[in-house]
Fold this protein.
Amino acid sequence: MSEQEAVVSETSAAGGAKKSDLSRAFSEDGARKTHVGGQALLEGIMMRGKYNWSVAVREPSGGIYLEEHDLASGRSGRGWMHWPLVRGCRALVESLVLGFKALEIAAEHAFLDSDPAEPAEAEEPSETPRSAARPSAEQTGSCASLASFEEKENGGARVSTHSSASAGSSGREDACAAGETLSQEQETGGSLAGEEGGFSWKDDFGRPETMIDALGAQTSLEVVSEAESAGVSQAGADAQDDGGKKKSFLDEEAEFGKGAMAVSMVFGLVLGVVLFIVAPAFVTNLIVGEYDGNTLLWNVVDGLLRVAVFVFYLWLIGRMAEIKRMFGYHGAEHKTIHCYEHGLPLTPENARSFPRLHVRCGTAFLIMVMIIAIIVYTVTPLNSLIEAWGVSDGAPKLALVIAVRILLMPVIAGISYEITVKWAGSHPDNPLVKVILWPGMQMQYLTTNEPDDGQIECAIAAMQKVLEREEAEAAKAASLANGTETEERASAAA
């Protein structure tokens, strides 16, 4: 029996013994610890590595939309961002920013509107290969999304971005032909017939508003080769403006709604501050009294209220159908990372057998932030500051307490990151680690659900994009090291 088969067998046996996911998360933690992490989205997954981040979204047509971008913190010359404590703050801020961007991408491609159009008139088929022919708008409300097909090799296993991982190109052609309403392709066209500078599948793919407006007038579809189609489905490929100049995703954030994203981020941060800092502090002041009257009790009550609000918030949003699906993607992310850390090929069959909980989950980090906050707030000499400044009781003193709490958040995030991610995540077998991570692991029962194979496919697709970049960067570093070594030997010989 091979080593991979042994791992699968042991995992299956563990599952057959009805061990809890919490127990399995500790006992089945893979030997290959990875820094790759992710975030569940609405109908998708975002994965982040050292150098890039990728998003995989399940489209209404059943295909998977893939997108990847460079990670700013992965660039050279930013070593200070990886210093202890600093890296925790960097990770928190980066997670917030990338999370909003990823959610925006997911919302754009997971909920494409179905806007029926008039059937296109049949024309003579082009001599161009039909391997990437797309269905008309009448057949599906997101005809371009069905052409999104990405094939990756990982340990000999082929992962398709179609709804069925085993479906090949012939299955995709059958799906496209099923409606019998395919528009015929032009031999040289790609834009609206008879309209110069009109809608173009090549140029405007990925812009929902433009696509929806043009569907009713579209008379033909451009036929492209399979390789070309795969390239178009990647939003990481540059989009073109009216002048033909290529622009990247980051250059076109305004078209995504840069202002809306900024407003959403600010609103989310303000809401978080109100829910988890201002409200608990206000209620604690009513229950315990003035902060300097009994500082330890004040901070403990405040911390417990904060945790209670957080747990209730997760429980409440978890009742929503869309969030339940998103929590399923969270479970898929964990299973995929488990699979990779055990050295198995990334397939739904392999990933499915692993627990949906993971010891290095960000949920544990958030709980640790709340616990560490109680300690940091208690040891902070705020009473001396109140006395020195002569801050009066009531609203002024409470405002100062809240302001200090906000200012200390980067310090708390840095300490929590070092404990939860760097230390505890690297020593899952340590009994003390199990005690420290226990609250966060329990929270994962609220934030994860058992995923279906389609959700696992999304997680695998996003993971593979990050791993490809990691391997490419490692190969580049090895090549540079070999070149340097060769030059040194040549210099020594001379």
User: Anything to note?
Assistant: The mean pLDDT is 74. The first helix runs from residue 3 to 16.
